[in-house]
Amino acid sequence: MTLGESAPSYMRDSELYVLQMGYPETRNMRTEIDLSNPEERLYPGMYAEVSLEMNRHPEALTVPAAAVGSDSVGNFVYTITDNRISRLAINIGLTDSGRTEVTGGLSKETPVVTTFRGAPPPGTAVRPPAS
Asked: Domains in the chain, ordered, with CATH?
């Protein structure tokens, strides 16, 4: 993987190698990076905290992660249809920074209840917020 435009100029032509797959509980992984270091700012053994963008879907439909529920039937969100809470099955993709990508089952025009926990049960009459 080559580091891109967001990296400091002295790192842009560098290569990153994953030596050991990550640990899900800590989100850490052992890596090695070959860096050009013409200004000698970096020394062997230094540590870094790095955030890697693995996938990017800028046009993706996303909802708050707290809006997505999951059970033995699958993933779902609560929506408002005809002034009533309804359960809508969805397909999900990536979750990051408190947002979950919805890859199927939901249109961008459909109002979504922002958290499924504590939401009224499906069928409950509600007044949707003004647009």
From this structure: 1-54 (no CATH), 57-131 (2.40.420.20)
